[in-house]
Prior knowledge:
By secondary structure, this protein is an alpha+beta fold. It has helices spanning 8-12, 22-26, 89-93, 100-106, 122-133, 136-143, 149-170, 178-181, 185-196, and strands at residues 35-38, 43-46, 51-54, 59-62, 74-75, 80-81.
Amino acid sequence: MSCQRCGTCCRKSGPTLRMQDRALVHSGDIPVGDLVCVRRGELAWDPRSNALLPVSQEMLKIRGQGEGWTCLYYDPGRRACARYAVRPVECRVLSCQDPGPLLAVMDEPPLSRDALYPPKSALALVVAEHEASYPAGQAVEWAQDSTTLALAHDLARREAHFRAALAERLAVDDVCLWPYLGRPLAQIVDAVRQMSGVC
């Protein structure tokens, strides 16, 4: 059965990129600025278990619209994808009637941010420093417990200063850092805190 173009999958989230999508990024068919890195330890929806789980390895995704997760390329008015001709493999194999092909693709390694820059480059060093200093998994863990929530907020505050300094130096908006540093920890902490009901 062919796609009914209902947009359900697109509203849930943009696709995770796989190694076979690397050429789409390198050619510019999928611009780097349209990506977000979901960092190790962040919570993400896993359709295999039908639950939000911490991701075990980082992954690049098509980012959402605004602060939500509706795929950046989804146009609800037209019920269409702005990048349909060059859509990633997860979108090409997705079928609401038969999730098997998508689940098989999900077992393949995701594309990670090291595909975006040369090893040992200045950007690689910045990413490594950010990851070591502001681990997303630690922020998620702390944000789920009222006794450690202040630690999560402090980590997010310090990370915000790091991001602001980098964005100023590069003369870019914070969203331009998302492929390399992921979403701001403050957004992650706030979402986890609300989900967990922690005050």
